[in-house]
Specification:
about 270 residues, alpha/beta, D-Maltodextrin-Binding Protein, domain 2, 2 domains, five-stranded mixed β-sheet, 10 helices, 13 strands
């Protein structure tokens, strides 16, 4: 009898191990650790956290203020996912670091805006005016394209999303383009004539692209899809059940309502 019990327990143990292996070792419950910039990403995640809690998942949100650190933390395994960037930025990180981070879905779009510093309107820009733009590859291209849309400069468009100041073909006002870290752009406003600022950093500085920007990317523009903010994970984790649950929580009606009410056009849900 005792021998039969031992055999039965052994069979059950093997069965449980096989079930675990059949699940591909995918993490399907417990804690999800995600990295994000404070505004708006961590704020949006705080609502998704409530949705996930109802499904039995715990979401730990780690805030970062510097873009490059967030992808490095994900790539090194310190995070399960991150939420702060658009696809071109992720592609650039992968290329530069021989990495294979992937997007599992797009959540929202933050219009890039031109904000006044010393000069209060674009019409009043004088020759030699100083214009601050983000110094990372993809956001600098985005900023230059926005300046070109306003007729302030002309670009060699063949560079596309890799456009730099070297691709400026006409600069009638002889604007002085200063490349500054994205996180520092809002602080630079007192020292420059205008600055092109990323949506999240503008919000942190109390600015809203919908009401405060001199010009902004429009929601029906190519930028609205090209620069949509995504949830990124390591390639081997893209089908993990808990991370798919995270994506669905971020696309919930509760999160959509929060975004629309809190940010009033400065952040636009795309689901």
């Amino acid at each position: 009898m005792k021998k039969n019990l031992v055999v039965l327990l052994s069979v059950l143990l093997v069965g449980l191990l096989l079930v675990g292996c059949g699940n591909g070792g995918k993490k399907s419950e417990g804690k999800i650790v995600i990295g994000a910039t404070p505004t708006p990403h961590a704020e949006i995640l705080s609502i998704a956290k409530e949705v996930l809690a109802e499904q039995g998942y715990e979401l730990e949100i780690r805030e970062f203020t510097d873009y490059p650190q967030i992808n490095q933390a994900l790539y090194s395994g310190d995070l399960d996912a991150n939420y702060f960037q658009h696809q071109p930025y992720l592609d650039n990180f992968n290329t530069e670091n021989n990495a294979d981070l992937v997007s599992i879905g797009a959540i929202h779009y933050e219009p890039l805006g031109i904000y006044s510093g010393k000069t209060k309107t674009l019409d009043n820009l004088q020759k030699g005016a100083v214009v601050a733009v983000p110094n990372d590859t993809t956001n600098e291209a985005r900023a230059l394209l926005l300046l070109a849309e306003q007729g302030l400069i002309k670009l060699d468009t063949s560079a596309g999303l890799n456009t730099t100041i070297n691709d400026i073909t006409e600069n009638p006002l002889e604007l002085k383009i200063e490349e500054i870290a994205a996180a520092q752009l809002a602080r630079s406003l007192p020292d420059v004539d205008i600055a092109v600022i990323n949506g999240n950093y503008a919000i942190q500085a109390g600015l809203n692209a919908a009401s405060d920007a001199l010009a902004k990317e429009e929601k029906d523009s190519l930028a609205a899809t090209t620069y949509a903010n995504i949830v990124a994970v390591r390639k081997e984790d893209e089908n993990r059940e808990d991370l798919q649950a995270l994506l669905e929580a971020l696309k919930s009606e509760k999160v959509k309502q929060f975004i629309e009410e809190k940010y009033q056009g400065a952040v636009i849900p795309i689901f």
